[in-house]
User: Fold this.
Amino acid sequence: MKICNIQEIPGIEKNVLEYMQEKQHEKVVFCSDESSNLKAIIAIHNTNLGPALGGTRMWNYSSISEAIQDVLRLSRGMTYKAAITGLNLGGGKAVIIGDSKDKTPEMMNAFGKFVESQCGQYITAEDVGMTTKDMELIFQETNHVVGKPFELGGSGDPSVITAYGTLMGMKGSAKYKWGHDSLKDKKVLIQGVGNVGKNLIKLLNDEEAIIYVNDVNEDKVKEIAKNYNVNILSDNIYNAEVDIYAPCALGGTLNDETIPQLKCSIIAGAANNQLAQEYIHDEMLARYNVLYAPDFLINAGGLINVYSELKGYSHDQVMLKTEKIYNTTIEILNKSEKDNISTQKAALQIAKERVFQKNSA
Ligand code: NAD
Assistant:
């Protein structure tokens, strides 16, 4: 097992360090363990409000720089997600490079050792490509892990609460846009029917929304269609005639190519980093008159859930705090209108005020 810091990697240090300075990251750790074939990166964006908490993503990145970019963006998002939600946590994230099919218990243990080596400055959790079982294996090597199974004193899979928070953000956006928050007969497109997406479908089904789904994994779509009355979209989804688009797969789906095609009035989903370029595509959405509910605001339910694990888990408290996403969403949308700035900027302003206010933790 070897820990090296970024300055030891020739060739990439200039860009990465410049990016880190620009976006105010504190630290990046490259992790490699030959025997388990682990290749991972831990990024700590900011610890002003508390230890940096953020999930680990396992993904088959096409290049190391793609992985670095992802972990840097995701860890920054975690800082602002915790801040806007009122949690005393910093922002961090980890990525494991590789196909989740190739994951082994040895690899998870080796990753746990790297998390432990950060001495509590970074706390990990589940993200795309990881499971509650993986958290259990990581927990064998470090206490700095949340989202563990219930039997181990954990709060279980956070995606149920993430979906609930996303619904609250969606309903808050509906209230702002349409004057009422009923989703009955509203057409909602969910892209990605994984852990969060499938829970969101259940909630939207209870709301009597008309549900459209899309996923690159056809088996998952078939499974959903067995249990719910959904419309399956397999071609270009961005020009679908829907009221709400809920990105629940990967980030970057709001970009130069997709935004001009959109026919929806609201975007409210759980995926992290939905805007390909946050200060360009936020404005572009506003120009196209599409209301964007900032992802880091409305997908905070899972973070609220795992945070509660650190403080002594209470399901009731988690649900109450997650419900507040509804009001915060409306506040941010009102601020955006009043200050004539994008919804993303309005949310970031509030989050940054909390992070960079001295002694605010
Ligand atoms: P997941 O891996 O369980 O599900 C993701 C789904 O998206 C998979 O079914 C996958 O096949 C599908 N997908 C991937 N690329 C796609 C594409 N191009 N088009 C359509 N479908 C595609 O992940 P998850 O836990 O449900 O998380 C979904 C998103 O929400 C991620 O961006 C994650 O970072 C974010 N998020 C998750 C949580 C949580 O509690 N799990 C919390 C906050 C944010």
Remarks:
- The first helix runs from residue 13 to 23.
- The domain at 2-82+89-148 is CATH 3.40.50.10860 (Rossmann fold).
